[in-house]
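Morning - magnesium ion inputs below, output right after.
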Amino acid sequence: MTQSQVSYSQLQQAVAALRAGEVVAFPTETVYGLGADASNPEAVKKIYQLKGRPSSHPLIVHIGDITQLPQWASELSLAAVNLASAFWPGPLTLVLKRDPAVNTVVTGGQDTVAVRVPSHPVALQLLKAFGGGIAAPSANRFGHVSPTRVEHVREEFGADVGIVLDGAGCEIGLESTIVSCVGPVPQLLRPGAITLAQLQAVVPQVTAAVDATAPRAPGMLERHYSPRTPLKLVATSDLQAAIRQMTQVGETVAVLATFSTTEINEQVIWINGSTNSTLYARNLYGNIRVLDKLGASVILVEALPSSDEWLAVNDRLRRAATPA
Ligand code: TXA
Ligand code: MG
């Protein structure tokens, strides 16, 4: 499903823009990123401006392979190297002690840096052709839903971002798993497609318990990933009643569930997001964008199982449901 290549001229254009200190949007296997030359503070500042993101919220540095890691991070632990070796290229971000040379615009003024090697072929092509690190948050306006298709990036930024590399859909659809490797034991800061169990299979000490020794992860705000339409989580058994309550008073309801219904009418818009957590995650942000555009009074999302495979999806839905 992911497009494996962009043309040579598109790639050269993107590299030239990065070298000139411009911002370029590109696909990764998780979500689309809004990238700039990580070693150029003025370029990185443009990302914050475009997103409307507070400058204290650090960015992830994307690199082409693990051999570039020492340029960004120092005091690498065995755990960090083992996690990187096991999961890169892939949807894992490591928070590490920053190399003193790393500019503090990228790190939001912290003494740590977040780094990952993405696996999307277009991201890797871009990183290899560029040669350096690309600082990139998700390519959405601050607090909004992350983009998983090239159209989403256009919706977010329009002509403000000139180069958007097309990598078709993002296979994973949720932001990377973030693990801090700076404390005494590695800590899971943000759940993602790589689960705690998978991390622990490589480094048994990894814990999901985040305590005061964990680095600040600004941007992990309670309300995040939010559509404009209010989003509510509803237990499966309460879904029918919740829909009736709204439609009886003339409201339109958008529903994201794990099953289909025959009860669709002009007041009920329904998407079956799948019972398969991988497929559900892949389409989650796209589905929310569709439902958000319909002018419904509310988006009702069927609450999902609390098992490990749904952890990352539940994390994003909980944040999306947090009122402003
Ligand atoms: O999958 C992803 O991670 C995507 C793609 C584009 O790679 N990027 C992404 O970036 O989700 P962003 O900026 O939306 O989220 C990055 C998160 C922030 O919530 C921030 O708190 C955390 O990474 N982070 C970055 N640098 C950090 C640091 N030095 N210490 C702790 N947390 C950090
Ligand atoms: Mg984001």
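Note: The pocket of threonylcarbamoyladenylate (ligand 1) is lined by residues 28, 30-31, 33, 58-60, 93, 95, 107, 110, 112-114, 118, 136-138, 175-176, 178, 215, 217-220 (CB under 6 Å).

O.
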